[in-house]
């Protein structure tokens, strides 16, 4: 556990450990829950499909392509729950493959089939 005060800035870093140095990492979706084993019932979306869902969520510059840095202000789930748990989904892509998901940024809508 990591203890923080309410509204304190919380900074996180995700690092990719691989012998392939031609990879990059992208934070796609991060959700918070008061229950470490249930990220569906009561969740708060910090970011979804690369789009910020929280006004305090921010991506930060990284020294290397295999490191993603982000942060947000600490919060709680209406005082009924003593802890907040995070689950983040990251995407790994080829470095400078601009057609990959890592370089698309925020994807606010999904494409649908146009069946007759």
Automatic annotation (TrEMBL):
* Keyword Cell membrane included in the entry's annotation: no
- List the keywords (alphabetical): Disulfide bond, Signal
Domain ZP, first and last residues per copy: 1-109
The UniProt record lists the keyword Signal: yes
PROSITE patterns hit by this protein = ZP_2
Highest taxon above the source species:
Eukaryota
Q: InterPro entries given for it? A: ZP-C, ZP-C_dom, ZP_dom
* Cited Pfam families: Zona_pellucida
This protein's name = DMBT1 protein
Q: Please give the organism.
A: Promerops cafer (Cape sugarbird)
